[in-house]
Amino acid sequence: MATEPKKIIIDTDPGVDDAMAILLALRSPEVEVIGLTTIYGNVYTTLATRNALHLLEIAGRTDIPVAEGSHVTITQGTKLRIADFVHGADGLGNQNFHPPKGKPIKQSAADFIVEQANLYPGKITVVALGPLTNIALAIQQDPAFVKNIGQIVILGGAFAVNGNVNPAAEANIFGDPDAADIVFTCGADVVAVGINVTHQVVMTDADRDKLVCSNGKYAQYLCKILEVYFSYHHDAYSTKGVYLHDPTALLVAVNPSLFTYMEGVIRVQTSGITRGLTLLYNKQKRFAEITEWSDKPSVKVAVTVDAPAVVKLFMDRLMDS
Length: 321
Ligand SMILES: O=c1[nH]cnc2c1ncn2[C@@H]1O[C@H](CO)[C@@H](O)[C@H]1O
Prior knowledge:
With 321 residues, this protein is an alpha/beta fold. It has helices at residues 16-26, 45-58, 84-87, 109-119, 133-141, 145-148, 171-175, 177-184, 195-198, 205-213, 217-225, 227-237, 245-254, 307-319, and strands at 6-12, 31-38, 66-67, 124-128, 151-155, 190-193, 202-204, 241-243, 259-268, 278-281, 299-305.
C-alpha cells in the first residue's frame, strides 16, 4: 500500500491549537506539509509568520517554506479582531521564545497557494485554520484556481449552534466574513468543519497530564504553551479541558472517515448584528422564489465526528514524537 502522501498547505494564525495541528501534521504519514501560509486571527500576521517559522524550527523542519499572508481583510479592512486573550500575547502561551532564525519566502501566501495548485493540479489540499483572506485572494487572483486546487478544508463556522465570538459568529468567519463568503461559494471542493463539530473534541486536563508524563518531543513542547489556552477554556466555558479545533480540522485531510458530512450551500452574513453567521441551506425544500442560495455550488459540512478516535490519534502521535 504505497500511496503517496497527500500534499497539504496549512494556512495558519498560530495560535496554540494551530501549533497542535502543525505538529500533528508533521507526525502524520498520510500527509506531506509542503508549506505554511500565515494570516491574522489569533495574532497579527507578522507574529503568525514568526510563530510559524519558530514551530518549524522546533520540529527540525526548516525545509518547509513559510509564505506570509495578508495583513488586512479582503475589503482592505484594518480593524482586525485578534484573539490574543485565548492564546497569550505572543500567541504561544506567553513563553517569549527566542525569535526564529529563518525568514519567510518572498512570495505572498496567495501567490504561493496559486503557484502550488498550478504545479500539482488536483493534488493540493489547503487546510485553512484562520480567517479566509488568503484563500479568497487566491480565488480572485487566478480564475483557474478553483479548478486546480484539490480540496479546501476550512476550520470555521457554527452550523446551527451559537458562535464563539458572539451568539452569531465563529471566530475565523467573523475575522473576514466577505472572504469566507467568496470561498464557500467559489465552486471548489470545500469541506467545512465548524465549532458544532470541534466542540465535541475535548482534550481533558487528564490528557494534558498524560502528555506531560510522556517523553514525546512535541508533547513536551506543547505542554509548555498550553497553560493560557487551558485557563481561558476553564473561565469561558467551564469545561475541564480544551477544544481541539485546529487538530480536528487537520484530521479531515488525514483521515476523512473519522467524520460524517452533509452537503449544501453555505452563505455568510457580512453585515449587521449577525455579521459572520454561516447559514447552510440543506436543499430539503425547493423554494418558490430565487434566493441568495440558489444556483450557488454545494460544499461539504462535517456533521458528526468520532471524538474519542480523534483525541486518541492526536495524543498517540504527539506522545510518540
Ligand atoms: O472564544 C474564542 N474567541 C475567539 N477565538 C477563539 C475562541 N476560542 C477559540 N478560538 C480560536 O478560533 C478558532 C475556533 O473558532 C480556533 O482556531 C481557536 O484558536
